[in-house]
Amino acid sequence: MSAVVVIGTQWGDEGKGKITDYLANQADVIVRHQGGPNAGHTVVVGEQEYKLHLVPSGIFCPGKMCVIGNGVVIDPEILVRELDYLKDLGVDVSNLRLSPGAHLIFPYHVIQDRLDEDRKGLLRLGTTGRGVGPAYMDKFARIGLRLMDLLDPEIFRSLFVPLCEHKSHMLEKVYGAERVDADALVDHYLSYGDRLRPYVADTVRLVNDALDEGQHVLFEGAQGTLLDVDHGSYPYVTSSYPTAGGACIGAGVGPTRIDRVIGVAKAYTTRVGDGPLPSELKDDIGEAIRTRGHEFGTSTGRPRRVGWLDTVILRYSARVNGLGGLAVTRLDTLGGFDPVKICTGYRYKGERIADFPSSITALAECEPILEEMEGWAAEFPPAETEADLPKACREYLKRVEELTNCRISMVSIGRERTQTLALEPIF
To answer: Can 13 be counted among the known catalytic residues?
Structure first.
């Protein structure tokens, strides 16, 4: 298999960064294809923990080509800061390539994002306030600026100054906010363009050439299926396509080039922000899982909401993504809880339903139907194969396969790269 897509099957934060980092050792090219600095991946290599927001997780594998595709929205300031952060830690970033077609986030996007959330009150979505939504709005309104525009000072100035005037008028008249000083920002952002210029390349050609040559290409998503703007729990979603189809749009490859989709799922369920979470635990068990699993947002630090594993959404994710395997993470976090529970269906208005409802109102009224299973010890013995896992843990995984009709291809039993078991070849 030459092209593998890694996506989140829940509401994000499933551990995609770790799975991507592990698989990157087998890949030649790693492509981030959607989202922006509202997403965060945490990767642990040896004793060092890294937190990324834009750079693909494969950057920690020497010699691998890492690509930020056209489907990503880039905050130039955050990207430059992230590159400096990695360089300071001794990470080689020379193999990073940026799509000239990637749209850019500017200060007025961040201001609009935060003011819009404040004005919504009880209707707020729980965004990260990083300007991602407004940047995608400008993209589809066809007034956004792209990385290629930032590389030519004359073009950038001619586009950016009138756009700032347009945005200032909106911020002033609609939100009562201060105007944006375009003149003060132009040279500042052109300096970011100079810093990023060496990394810009024709990434569509690069990725397709790699596939033509039979190289292994790994597509790395951000967020999760239930945050997809079309297929997620709308309106509590992100502004892009975290589902597998987004890899084609955000990287510029045809759907016939994708060989396999691996979905990442925690052994339980979490989400950040507002919106229904049917299996949510609002008790001491939920707090204990949150604490044990360090469930706080990489980008925001916000505590994640926690619930038992919801196989209704995993079945839904398998359907809309065409999953060819599951990677189950954080099995170690559930160690010590006995019993552990799995949500096998919902009860809605007195009736059992097995499918994910399309109505957010209906989802908010769904109660989880929980099945109890025997738990396992808090500490895992050293494990190199599936047979080394505790019996109760193996039974849990088997039940997940039965409920999702999707085989488990990988499991993670700890934060470190070495604490990952591949149960079958991925590439």
So the answer is: yes
- pLDDT of the residue at 345: 97
Nearest alpha carbon to residue 162 among 187, 186, 189, 192: 186
Q: How many domains in the chain?
A: 2
Q: What is the pLDDT of residue 305?
A: 95
Domain that includes residue 139, residue range:
103-198
Q: Residues 9-53: pLDDT tens digits?
A: 999 999 998 899 899 999 999 999 999 998 777 788 877 888 889
Same domain, 138 and 220: no
In angstroms, rounded to a whole number, what is the distance separating the alpha carbons of residues 331 and 63? 31
∠ at Cα 247 (243, 252), nearest 5°?
150
- 322 pLDDT more than 90: yes
Q: Which of 13, 21, 28, 310 is labelled catalytic?
A: 13
Question: 323-380, pLDDT tens digit by residue?
Answer: 999 999 999 999 999 999 999 999 999 999 999 999 999 999 999 999 999 999 988 8
From edge to edge, which strands make up the β-sheet containing 260-266?
Answer: 96-98, 65-68, 29-32, 217-220, 3-8, 260-266, 326-329, 408-412, 420-422
Q: Are residues 185 and 312 in the same domain?
A: no
Tens of pLDDT, residue by residue over 60-75, are 999 999 999 999 999 9
What lies within 8 Å, CB to CB, of 225 at 6+ separation is: 7, 8, 9, 10, 231, 232, 242, 243, 263, 313, 316, 317, 320, 321
Question: Which one is catalytic: 33, 41, 109, 216?
Answer: 41
**3-class secondary-structure state, position 49:** strand
On whether both 152 and 295 belong to a single domain, the answer is: no
**In a domain? residue 237:** yes
